[in-house]
Batch of 2 targets.
Target 1
Amino acid sequence: MTNSTTNKVMTKVMNKLQLVLLLSSTILLMPSANAALYVTIVQGLGGLPEYDDKFTDQAQKIYQASLTLADASHVTSMAGDDAARRPLLIHFQNLAEAMNEDDRAAIYLVGHGSYDGEQYKFNIPGPDITAADLAEILESFPGQNHFLVNTSSTSGAILEALESDQRVIITATRNGNEKNATEFGNYFADALASDIADINKNNNVSIQEAFDFAERSVAEFFESSGRLATEHPQIRGEGAASFSLARVEPLETSDENPLINALLSRSIELNAEIESLQLRRNEFSNVEYIQSLQALILESAEISEQIDSLREGTQANVQ
Amino acid sequence: MFNRPKHTYSFHDLAAPVVACVVACVFASIAARAAKPTAIVLLAALLSIVPHSSFARDHLYGAIDNESLLQCETVNWAGQLLEAAACYSGLHNGEQTPQIRAEAFWAQGDLQSANTQFQDAINRFPEDPMVRVRWGELFIDSYQYSEAYTLFGEALEIDPENSWAHIGAASALSEGGDPEALNQHLNKVMEEGLAPHGAKLRAMMMVIRSLLRQDRYQEAEGSLEEAFEFAEDESLATMELKALRASYEFMTRGDYQSWIDASLKESPGYGDAWFIPGYHATIIRRYEEAGDFFKEAVTLQPDHWEAHIYLGQNYLRLNDINDAIRHVNISYDGNAFNPMTVNLLRLLDTFTEDFVSITYPDPPEGPLPALVVKLHKDERDVLKNYTRKLSEDSIDVYTERYRFEPKEPIIVEIYPNHEDFVVRSIGMPGVGILGVTFGYLFAMDSPTGHPDQRYHWGTTLWHEMAHVFTLKATGNLVPRWFSEGISVYEEWRTGPIPGRKIPTDVLQAMAEGKFLPIAVLDDGFMRPDYQGQVIVSYMQAGLIFDFIDLEYGFDKIVDMLYLFNEDITPVEAIEQVLGISDSEFDRHFKQFIDIEYGPLLSGLSVWMEDMSAGYEALQAEQWQEAAAAAERAVFTYPDYVENDSAYIVMARAYQKLDKKEEEFQALQTFWQKGGYLPAALLSLADYYLERKINTEAEAVLVDISYADPFIEDLHVKLGDLYMDTQRPAKALEEFEVLLALDPLDKASANYRIANAYKALDNDDKTMEYLMTALDIAPQFRPAQQLLLEMSRTSN
């Protein structure tokens, strides 16, 4: 494709989409440049070696996956005595102090839970962490849109205390009565490094994508083993689709070639414009929407093609 | 096990039909679920739940001797219903004991008041066993057999020799309870010289019913004659006996009408004179005639709710849904406590709301379509193509082989919910069947009803379709074993996974010489002597036709089949067509079995030891030992390809040992011999695809679709293979199934469909699916590239 062809396409698109592009020039939903993701992984007591191994494996997968998106200094994994109540509360207190309004926290609780009909407890060495503690921790963070996933048995018991539009909460079970050790954590951890879980193929696994993957995997697990499902994962809160937890493949955002850098920059803008268009699809007729989407994706595709060509060292068909 | 009635007996449960159903379901659940790898399927009605003897409140047969009540009874059974109603109403006053008042309310259909009066009676006469006996009979009329049985037991604690209590207990147990206990109760009555004559007659009639249900006509005839003589000597009512005689005559193609007339002459308003023969007509699968009987029953006695429900169910079998709904509703309005009514009502709701009909060809070539497929709407897009292909292929095969052209559309119903399917088939849940054929209509389980991957739905469909032909070619007169045998034989010969598949317990039975003489092979289906005999009988019947085919030729099978139109027995059919006696046939068949299975049977214990050793070694992760044991098992019995086959052990062990070629060979042999475990076949397909052996890969993948078409990966692989081999139309079908499975990765599914449409030069559809894919995943590179390509082409 020549530049002139590209320009013609772009002109055509611009004519159709003037309004869309003007609006989408503001990149919605993108965290501010200063926003950071703080990840805390709490590995509870296994009780048996097989569960210890399982939880360790899950915690490690989550840790590795988190490093693809978050700064290593912002990813904390706590296990054994480090995951006792006091060090945990201190850690979260420090975290609350370190975070600013734009930051987001992601907390993973990997382990067993218990529920006595009144109080949920996440099992750690010494005194356990309760649902009330978790609510207090989340409330202490500045800003909003934080995330907590609790993969333990009976974890559904925390929903009432924690659910809010301001945060995303995931539990492995529907309520406190689902007491069997869960499978959900395995699949959720797997999802973070799975291109299959990346449903929208944007190279990121969002909370929603990881949940969908894990929820379906749990259902298939019980169905294929002919067992009655003893856990029913739940998700609460808004914004799960736009909260990325991990990146599937490393992102190349810069290049020595300034032309590539410019194209990458435009590609990121286009992705944001597409996201903006999708969020506002109700404002358009179906035909208008598809045409607009098509134009944006066409440009994005052309840019990707040009980047590939430039990277292969072959001169693109630029006249 | 029976629950003891609550201390205060209550009809509270009657207000909740669901509970009534639960009680009945306990009884119904005695039939072991036979989820065998081979399609074990039953012809309709043979596992039917036995309806209690007749419409609400039977004749007393002398159980109560109250003069006032008996006057009303006489008028009632003489068909003078208005007079009877007035007479019974006259017994409601305080002059009568609560038990007589209860009988009067009961006779008028007011079960709640009858129950209250019985409660009162038991408080006032706690030591009178007959109060408990009659109350127990009331519980039977309200389908609470467990409660009823407890009451009869309490009566027997008071009076262990009470024949009415024994016969009541036997009646309660006949709804699915312990057959040994049932016989003990019956024998107590039959053998007790001083038993009341009426109780004895009831016991005799129970025996006759049982004999008729088991096709033991000669014994039934003798018992009927004995019962008539007894009833005449003791001046007992015989209208029920006459209805049973009519049933016998109908089942043996005699003059049944004169016995119905005689029954009605004795009791002109007696709907059971029609209903009882109707019920027995369903036993022998004569559904059209059964429907006529039931219609007469409800015409004569519009409040015969049981006849309404049986008529409704019968309409369902004949695919007359509207009339089925009408009569099920009438039954429910009249008696909401019959669990069969409640179950069918729910089923009809599901059926009318959730099922869709697809007709083929569309539009039909004649006035009617050849095939109607009824699928749950959630499964339609997954199953329709495969169901159509299997159905049309099997119709073609059977039309030619059995020289029979279907006269009506063949209707295939596939149920994702096993209990819906069972209720549709026999009215009650809890029975382990996979498919039921009524005539031109058959119903069966969907693969989603059996998530354990042992169920091969394609084989079940093939099996049931064979029943359509054997039943309709003989006007539903083909004997049970003959029809089942042909269906099993066709599974092995022409089905989607050809090859004999004999379960291990059947091999064991074979080794123990448990095959029956051909003259009594139906006994193995109708009155099994040991657990698993039904399965053994299926296999024996299948092997018999394999033997006839190999020894005498396939045409002889068809010749024998058509002889059943001429009212002859299987033994006569063998004599006429094969020219040998049944004993000679048995001898030849045994020789055949000895030749085919002798070496295996003599080494069966060794084979079983090797199989166990293989699995134990697998469990212990001793891969080399597992492979060696499995190799030995395969050497002894190379054709065993059930899902626990030694080939599977070998494949697993070789995979762990990283011996890819050996694993491939094990999987390939497993498949070639008719193995169908989907996970194993998917691995085999991968091997074929890796080696570019596309023809075999395709064949394996198609085979998987007849075992479990709900595997997403199957359709990805098969569709991609079709695309690679330039068959986009077939690829499109697979990708559409993939999308219908609601995959997690919808972007890829839509992209694949777009590609298939592009190959079919359908740009509009290509863009439609492509943009759907890109809407889900805007950065999906392959889809972006296709969009670029489309854009450049259009420019």
Target 2
Amino acid sequence: MSDSKHTDQARRDFLNNSAKLAAGVTLASGVMLYGVAHARPAEQPATSEVRWGMLVDTNKCAKGCDACVTGCENENGWGQGSNDEQKSNANQKAQWIRKVELRNTATGHVHSLPMMCQHCETPPCVDVCPTGASMKRADGIVLVDKHICIGCRYCMMACPYKARSFVHEALEDQRAHAPRGKGTVEACTFCVHKLDAGEGTTACAEACNTEGHKAIIVGDLKDPNSEIAQAVAEYATTQVRADLGLNTGMRYRGI
Amino acid sequence: MKKTLFTQIGAGKGFYGLLAGLGAVILVGMLSVYHMEHNGHWVTGMTNQIVWGMPHVFAIFLIVAASGALNVASIGSVFGKKMYKPLAPLSGLLAITLLLGGLTILVLDLGRPDRLIVAMTHYNFKSIFAWNIILYNGFLGLVAVYLWTMMEKRMNRYTPVAGFFAFIWRLILTTGTGSIFGFLVARQGYDAAIMAPMFIVMSFSFGLAIFLLVLMATYKCTERPLGDAMVKRLKNLLGVFIAGVLYFVATMHLTNLYATEHHGVERFILMDGGIYTTLFWFGYFVLGTLAPLALLYHPATGKSRSMIGLASALVVLGGFALVYVIVIGGQAYPLVMFPGYEITSSFDGGVNSAFYAYSPTIYEVLLGFAGVAITLAMTTVAVKNLRFLPESLADADVDPH
């Protein structure tokens, strides 16, 4: 009895102190305060009034720069952002985002761009998934529910962009906001944890901005006042393999 | 014409020896599965580029053959050919055991085989895989009922109805298996409606070849008479099916060759693909098609049991090569994401990879063999315990119509 009272008191103290600490941290950071104001409450589902999109300006994307890749790795805990996947070979290791160099075979012109999940409006991976683990949120973000993925890899066969990776070994070093697991499939999450927290951007875009290239714009394609909506309205942009009619959330300029 | 008498086979040294051998193969296969699942798929040759490997080649081959093995029964019940009726129980049995062998491989290769129950409780009805789960289970149930109507005298009058539904179901099932690839719009090597009927004709050929091998081996080992009339009928049918597969394979490639868009992948499979080109031309075309056709129809070899057995075995090997080329070759050819561009990517260790490499590890191969052994072991146990096989298939004992 006295034990449980003691535990209760300890728990209360802990919660009390955590709340004070959280309040302190939140108020100390102006950015955080702004973010929380725009965050979607946890109980409110994602809405189809938003369509998250990303625009990559390949003219600004620097050859040889892979800041977006390392930014994603560190944010989401794969590649150099994790101590895991020591046993997997280069083709077995996860790759949520990759830099691709394109050389026009006719003209020799080279450009560079990041490839990742294109967050299709009608994603083939979601169509073929037998259990519904591959899914698309109402706001257009394509994700894998790691709890019901059985690891059949049919989504990887169906993806036109080779955007998905299969986890080939047991993992220990993970981020709480980006759970991963041996025997399941994963891909770019559009930094859904950051968007849901109201940060309005992704790790790759942040890393690109830090490098000064500013090649990636993230935003709501359905909000006419957003930077991305205005950019795609003003400039010619391309969807990779637009012939498939998937209406991707990822757009590129200059290809 | 005597009534066909079905009996169990006896259990001698050969029977237990065979079971012990198959048991050993299954045991080694299960140890491989444990190794693969305990460590993760890094111990296999499969990668993020070649996501389906050797286990899938075995599994798809067995699943395709399963629906084809039922053909012999269908010809008897649905198309009323009396000569095939005594063979119907074995045909149904092989359909079930081949399917179970293939599915075992498929399930044990999953990243999370422990979540099989999830696949049974969460369905995405737009997924051809989810349909296949229903099609496979339905097939097992329907063929079991079909076998029951054949083997239980009071139910015999329902055999034609059960046989009819099983036949329709198997056509849909193989359409489903072919569509796993046919529906992959983004891949150059797949995305073709012809894959569904092609898989159906492949199933006719592979299934009958396996049926012939099992039939001849069983009758030889149990010293039951098997007449030349029966063997001749089956081997001629096999010849027609081999030619049928060749027709579909040729049509698919010729259609692709006409469209410039597909020249890359055709060049890869037919000319520059290394192992895939070799397997296609030498494995499938020469060994798996021309050689068995010659053996089956040449007057000097067409009457020899051992040559017919060899031809059937070649059809199985050639069919396996064809499935390998389809499954692995189709993935080894890279996706065309940026037509007109040469691509270098960090995904492949930064190399400008023209084609993706794959070499299976021993664990994958052992899992595949275990699936085959499961099929054969289940068949052996079934014919020992239930009346699947006619006492005699001698020419005098079978209705030649």
